[in-house]
């Protein structure tokens, strides 16, 4: 069966005074119906721009989708006109954002903010929409939900606001939910509750979820498959269990090594990935991760490694077969020590 | 809410008292007096001046003069010679004007009709309100339009015009309007005919409102630009709402908060501060009278002008704060 969402060779560029920023550079991935895909990467690697590109909400200017195709249920969203897009946004693809403190309109009641998409997409009357909004708030676990419809966002806590955001996103039973770092701005205890809620509702409503995060713990607990992004490119993709057991891209390996473990000895230092991600303006033709890579060799500086199949349903963008067990080269470890 | 309003109104009392006392004091301390004449003209005889000073209570100590103006006093009735109770400003009696040698009171000068013509206050207030409406009704849509069409020719044009109006001041815009529309195009008469209910008001309204128009336009534009890139606008777009609905329902209400805030002081200034416009367009309003009062050391008129300004500022600010509470649910008054 064809995937619900199929992104092919997506290119999203931002035109700035310093040059063209290729925020999303030839990115392809897919999401099947009922599946949860995780997109992982550090800040500025193009995760959020990818999701906004799918919604066609890239601020333009300066942003521009320069190429590629985004098939949603067989239809190319990049060919759709604005009216068709409006019919899809909030209705068939819904999105929740990172910061629930700023993502709700402060001068409208939460009831109004939920009913507006119900009235728009499902053509409900005001009264029907209001009672449905009450049910939705109840569904996301807000106590005495129907009484809180007249409240304003500032009368809710951060976790409750994210619940409101979820209720708003799920109002029209979307087929795909894009969650852009849904727990980053929340307390750790609330994070778990929100993830559990998303998981539960995904089962109940039978939707596909694309969860964007930099938190590998979230990925491990939530997703079926993972796409790792670095510097605007996909650098590894695999089933979640496969990726955690057998990472093949040095960047992914670095990410996994950097997670502190409870069972290791006290006083051990953290294992960060050294350096910073490259500027996305005028990336030279070399492996974008090479300046930070512990396994770098001369070939890495000659061309940009393409995604290649390294195992069943597992692709990685590295020229060499590197695994967790590959020893660090002597020269490189000296370099680190110095 | 009503408790809040009552408290705000009560707070006006000390403010008015302090402003009254300071203005009265400064006016009194200024060298010269209401009965001085230029050195080359016939001087008032010392005997007459003494009688006048007595008549206006200027021989009394300062605190007594002030309380007579502000609160009340027992004043000798010239006919019977008996002391008679008399209210001051708090009772609506703003005292005699020295310029008329006491024949007319300040409230008569400011608020009473003069041989069929409306009062001076009417002219100033109407002109101010019209200018405010002109500035708001044009300024807000222009600011919104410029922000929504940012970096297009429309934006640049609106930005240029509003900057032009803000920088030029009423004085220059007023003369420009007279030269272009009255002298050259002859659409209006240079000497206004105030029997006409509309025509003479148009140019002074534009002149007085122009600075505020530019100000409101620029403020609205920057405020809309600020709101436009908020996260909740992206949320609204992600719901699939049409652009007009996003603008009307989500952007405008948020963007107008800072605009509403400045309307209070702006309104008070427009209603009472119409001096240049009144001079250029020969409007028989209060502004001219109040400035002349300073030159003539007309103490009661000067202080009354200040009190009226502060009163309107307080009322306008209260109205704005209430409007603010109605627009922004995060603000509640207790």
UniProtKB/TrEMBL annotation, chain A:
Record carries keyword Glycoprotein: no
UniProt membrane topology term: Peripheral membrane protein
Domain of life according to the entry: Bacteria
Domain spans labelled ABC transporter: 7-256
Name of the molecule in the record: Oligopeptide/dipeptide ABC transporter, ATPase subunit
GO biological process, one term: peptide transport
Recorded family membership: Belongs to the ABC transporter superfamily.
GO MF annotations, alphabetized: ATP binding; ATP hydrolysis activity
Compartment(s) where it occurs, according to its Swiss-Prot or TrEMBL record: Cell membrane
One CC-aspect GO term: plasma membrane
Keyword Nucleotide-binding: yes
Keyword annotations from UniProtKB, A to Z: ATP-binding, Cell membrane, Membrane, Nucleotide-binding, Transport
UniProtKB/TrEMBL annotation, chain B:
Topology within the bilayer: Multi-pass membrane protein
The entry's keywords: Cell membrane, Membrane, Transmembrane, Transmembrane helix, Transport
Main location per the UniProt record: membrane
Record-level GO cellular component terms: plasma membrane
Domain of life: Bacteria
Compartments it resides in: Cell membrane
Ranges that cross the membrane: 9-27, 127-148, 157-181, 201-220, 255-279, 299-320
GO-annotated biological processes: transmembrane transport
Family: Belongs to the binding-protein-dependent transport system permease family.
Identification of the protein by name: Binding-protein-dependent transport systems inner membrane component
